[in-house]
Amino acid sequence: MKTFLDWSAYDTYGIGDAYSGIPATGGNYAKAVAVCMHSRDCQNTGKGVMCPSYRITGDRAHSTEARVAAFKAALNGEYGEKSFDDPRLAEAMDLCVSCKACKKECPSSVDMTLIKTEYLAQRHAILGVPRRTLLFGALPRWASRYRRLLRFGISLRNRSETLAKLAERWLGIAAARPLPALAAKPFAGFEAKGEGERGDVILFVDTFCHHFDPEIAEAAVTVLSSAGYKVRIAKPAPDDSEPDRPLCCGRTYLTTGLVEEARVEGKRVLAAFRPEIVKGTPIIGLEPSCLLSLRDELYSLGLGAEVGDLGKQLYLLEEFLVREHQRGMRLNLKPLDLPKALVHGHCHQKAFGVMKATRKALSWIPGFKFDLIEASCCGMAGSFGLEAEHYKASLDMAEISFLPTVRAAEKDAPIIANGFSCRHQIRHGGGRDSIHIAVLLRDALALN
């Protein structure tokens, strides 16, 4: 079986009972599936994230364990020669939101997110790539090449019920869900900012911050420069074939199974950061799924040992600030006259243990009080909540505890959510605005 991702990390992954019935075909991909030891933690409905789809259905068929069983059947030939287009496999994967919870909360660390990427790539090879997949997956390219047209089209579609219904009929985009609007102007890069007495840092401005929420990137620059760093914006390498297009982590391509396109983005990132890998320059990201995809999933694209070196220099903003705080860095922060805030952790923040840094950074603001929202996935999950057939499931996930908590918050209480999709779900489902931690810290700076 030819795989699209590099599964060599599983070649010697565990021994003996570290596997449970390795399928007959699939090589190392089959081993990645077989790490499931049927602990059934994926059928937990208590604290934690796993598994959002099981939580809303209560049906074992929508758990990680059941998905593993379906893949084992497919790789053992029980679904025929072209098993990846079998309806039974499609049904098993239908409600998977790629939240990464299973990799964190499963005792065997089943990486269903990556397993799903391979599945989608195999399915595309058999059936072709759907139009909606091309639309969502290639967002970084559409937003760069056709930004004005895309912004106009989204605005028009959001204002017109007729166009929204047509888009649902033709593309499967939920008519009831507004699409995120692009900012009037994208993030405006610059050469460098800050005196740099504490050294240089690189700010990786992802697609969502660049095109939809440039204020977040601008706020991060202000915070980092105020903390004593010289901030440079990540740029493509001089010999990049698309020097005017911002760097992209490839996340939208990976989640839609467009592996070759994701590999192109991964190569661009490595080429751009190669000099910084040698220097050891910290590289700071803002969108959890983007930065943490570079740190975790880039290895699956088979791009060499540099991926591991790069991963050691990648930080989310609050991770970097907390690390530097331990080394003597201090932000001059003032009290904010605000009610107790709510903090929602993106699934990737939870999966990679970033929430500790988030809490620590927020504790620096004098008198600032906050509660963490105890919830599973917000349900938006990238394009999942925009898909017509998943719109109801998306809201069902959010309504378990997430959106009720948001609605119950005091009127002027800040809601902090670092994830782009999470903020969109909060606005649409909860009727509230939310902010990124970078914006909150900027507002708390005592600059005068």
From TrEMBL:
Identify the keywords attached in UniProt to this record, alphabetized: Iron, Iron-sulfur, Metal-binding
* Entry keyword annotation includes Nucleus: no
State the protein's name.
Answer: (Fe-S)-binding protein
Top-level lineage group = Bacteria
* Iron keyword on record: yes
Matching entries from PROSITE patterns are given as: 4FE4S_FER_1 (PS00198), 4FE4S_FER_2 (PS51379)
Residues in 4Fe-4S ferredoxin-type domain copies: 87-117
> Which species?
Methylocapsa polymorpha
What InterPro entries would the database entry show? 4Fe4S_Fe-S-bd, 4Fe4S_Fe_S_CS, Helical_ferredxn
What the entry lists under Pfam families is as follows: Fer4_8
